[in-house]
Write a structure and sequence with these properties.
The chain is an alpha+beta fold and about 675 residues long. The protein is about 40% helix and about 15% strand. The protein has 4 domains: about 180 residues, HUPs (Rossmann fold); about 140 residues, Methionyl-trna Synthetase, domain 2; about 150 residues, Isoleucyl-tRNA Synthetase, Domain 1 (Orthogonal Bundle), CATH 1.10.730.10; about 100 residues, Nucleic acid-binding proteins (OB fold (Dihydrolipoamide Acetyltransferase, E2P), Beta Barrel). Helix 16 runs antiparallel to helix 18 and helix 17 runs antiparallel to helix 18. The longest helix has 30 residues. About 45% of the residues are buried.
Length: about 675
């Protein structure tokens, strides 16, 4: 599908400028969008990445009141802080704008007046909550009460945070003003409504046209909205902070933030075009049907980008619509939701003072909530760094460059005749760009990241199997070929990993002493051998350092989480010893290390998981009864121990070719048998 377009427009949801960016935000859309755009740039495609601060709405005024300052001071503070956090985290935007800028106000007013002129905005009088003591109409977030749908007692005026249901604020039970705490009265006011229902059929056709490619969570939420039937939606509100409604008789009213915020993508692109010295260039990205538009966002923003924004663009006419909306679910923290009020959050501005950004970029990429909510665990962060980035990826780079520096004068040795092992690893690396790129094109960033690490795993296995420390003395030409190949794989990995860990890839590039930046590389050729014999290398350095347990315990303590030791089992909980076996009996069991490369639940089973494992010499499928103890996402990438020569069996109709090892205990005493560090898949256990 990519080849049908001349250029790609990428937007990332505009974060509210009323708080700091945390890891949950990054996993929602910013890490995926950055991986995607970095990959597309390496493919040398015309790609534009747009974002900015959402600076209007009641959320801003409430924050201003809480911090005893003005809305303008709030947005100035958090826009600057979040722009800096994104930059330090390596999230690159071609323009990071603000909805408070004049160019955005002009764009929003233009849309409002055009839709009004076409009859898509109609005035209506309505009843609305009014705080008589504060002498003001109450916007939805200034009212709190009991949800009419689920009974949640802290529901907002327009949407319940507990059940997610939207409703009219007058349906709220036992409403209270957040300004004075008093029960509001109902008073008549006038607002303009967008005739959203008039676009029902066109939106249904638009959705079904893209159904084959869109993610299921996006389809189901959008279909649910359309099934209920679209209703007229107010586009103005009584508020002092925002874009003034540009017509007579609308004093004290502003354009509702839901209507203007998405237009921030367009105004930010206009601003970018002006900065490029070509003010009309923005139209190539928004009005040319040969542009592909991808909108990245979190699940709480889906319908605004699959229903509301497309309807606005349809009404205005002449604009392209999102071709895909790869929304993610939520990232939770240590089993609970990210919450500033409960001190349950990890802010980007804080962690980058303690850790390199790439450690979090990689951990998040391996655990993105692409199909359902996932969790960030500090222990998992430590394991991803120590067992994968340090022991697999960083280890191969360090051992390769160090060996070449010591034994080949810090230069790439000549390439001699290739044996079967050489050809196999070169073939695997040569085809990696297509495998990884194909997954990124499908927005399967988690799987793409795993495939990147599989290249590092294969490289380590090749180094170990080739034993250059032996061949250097017994067959120096063969050793030179091994190192020639390994150094070129290092170069390949720097390019392949660049979308996920860009800072580390730049360091590897420096170690290889390559003059041109990675940006000049061509993704499709990333697997080719391009370092020539005789090329002088730079200075090797440790790419990733291990994180000690004490460091992680401090992070957990800061969140109020303490890792309690498992409770001791009573004598009754221990299974009796089985009859003795001879060594010869035990030796018949072939125990091997294996890497879990995919995992999913077995349909209609509460206990079974179907795993795809890599044994180094082959991949196979096993079925394990651990679904109630561990999620599929927690297994992917782990090095486990399996019985490799168990006779095949079928469990609920699914074939299993092996068995993993785990403790027989439930609850806190359940554990998979894994290695203390990642080792080569397929190694025997003695």
């Amino acid at each position: 599908m990519q080849n049908n377009f001349k250029r790609i427009l990428v937007t990332s949801a505009l974060p509210y400028a009323n708080g700091h960016i945390h890891l949950g935000h990054l996993a929602g859309c910013y890490v995926p969008s950055d991986i995607y755009t970095r990959y597309q740039r390496l493919c040398h495609r015309d790609v534009l990445h747009i974002c900015g601060s959402d600076e209007h709405g009641v959320a801003i005024t409430i924050s201003a009141e809480r911090e005893k300052t003005t809305p303008q001071a709030i947005v100035d503070k958090y826009h600057a802080a979040n722009a800096d956090a994104f930059r330090r985290f390596g999230i690159h935007f071609d323009n990071y704008s603000r909805t408070s800028r004049p160019i955005h106000h002009e764009t929003a007013k233009e849309f409002f007046l055009d839709l009004l002129d076409k009859g898509f905005l109609v005035p209506k009088e309505q009843d609305q909550f009014y705080d008589a003591e504060a002498k003001m109409f109450l916007p939805d977030r200034y009212v709190e009460g009991i949800c009419p749908n689920c009974g949640y007692d802290k529901a907002r005026g327009d949407q319940c945070d507990n059940c997610g249901k939207y409703y009219d604020q007058l349906d709220l039970k036992d409403p209270k003003s957040l300004i004075t705490g008093k029960t509001p009265v109902v008073k008549r006011t006038k607002h303009w409504y967008f005739t959203l229902g008039s676009f029902q059929k066109r939106l249904e056709e638009y959705l079904e046209q893209h159904a084959p490619e869109w993610k299921d969570n996006v389809l189901q939420q959008t279909r649910s909205w359309l099934k209920e039937g679209l209703q007229d939606r107010a586009v103005t509100r009584d508020l002092s902070w925002g874009i003034p409604v540009p017509i007579d008789g609308a004093d004290g009213k502003v354009i509702y933030v839901w209507f203007d915020a998405v237009l921030g993508y367009i105004s930010a692109t206009k601003e970018w075009a002006i900065g490029q010295g070509d003010p009309e260039r923005w139209k190539q990205y928004w009005c040319d049907p040969t542009t592909r538009y991808i909108a990245f966002l979190g699940k709480d923003n889906i319908v605004f980008h699959t229903v509301v924004f497309p309807a606005e663009l349809m009404a205005k006419t002449g604009y392209i619509l999102p071709d895909n909306v790869p929304a993610n679910e939520f990232l939770n923290l240590e089993g609970g939701k990210f919450s500033k009020s409960r001190n349950n959050a990890i802010y980007v501005k804080d962690i980058l003072d303690r850790y390199p950004a790439d450690l979090f970029r990689y951990t998040i990429a391996t655990n993105l909530p692409e199909t359902k909510d996932s969790d960030f665990y500090w222990k998992d962060f430590q394991a991803k760094n120590n067992n994968e980035l340090a022991d697999i990826y960083g280890n191969f780079i360090n051992r390769t460059i160090t060996f070449a520096a010591k034994n080949f004068g810090n230069a790439v040795p000549p390439l001699g005749p290739l044996n079967e092992r050489d050809q196999a690893v070169l073939s695997f690396v040569r085809t990696a760009p297509e495998r990884i790129g194909g997954l990124i094109e499908q927005f399967r960033f988690r799987d793409a990241t795993m495939e990147m690490m599989n290249v590092a795993r294969a490289a380590n296995k090749y180094f170990n199997d080739s034993e250059p420390w032996k061949s250097f003395k017994s067959a120096p030409a063969e050793c030179g070929t091994t190192l020639h190949i390994c150094l070129n794989i290092v170069r390949s990995m720097a390019v392949l990993f660049a979308p996920v860990v860009p800072f580390s890839s730049d360091k590897v590039w420096s170690m290889l002493n390559i003059a041109d930046p990675i940006a000049k590389e061509q993704w499709s050729a990333a697997g080719e051998m391009k370092l020539p014999a005789g090329h002088t290398l730079g200075t090797s350095e440790i790419l990733f350092t291990k994180i000690e347990d004490a460091v992680i315990e401090n992070e957990l303590a800061a969140l109020g989480v303490h890792a309690a030791p498992p409770a001791a089992a009573s004598a009754a909980e221990y299974a009796p010893l089985k009859p003795q076996v001879t060594y010869d009996d035990f030796a018949k069991i072939d125990l091997r290390t294996a890497t879990v490369i995919a995992a999913e639940a077995v349909p209609k089973s509460k206990k079974l998981l179907k795993l795809q494992i890599d044994l180094g010499f082959e991949q196979r499928q096993i079925v394990a009864g651990i679904a109630e103890k561990v999620t599929p996402e927690q297994l992917i990438g782990k090095t486990i121990i399996v019985v490799a020569n168990l006779a095949p069996a079928k469990l609920m109709g699914v074939e299993s070719n092996g068995m993993l090892l785990a403790t027989a205990a439930d609850g806190a005493n359940f554990a998979l048998l894994t290695t203390s560090k990642d080792v080569i898949s397929g190694m025997g256990i003695k």
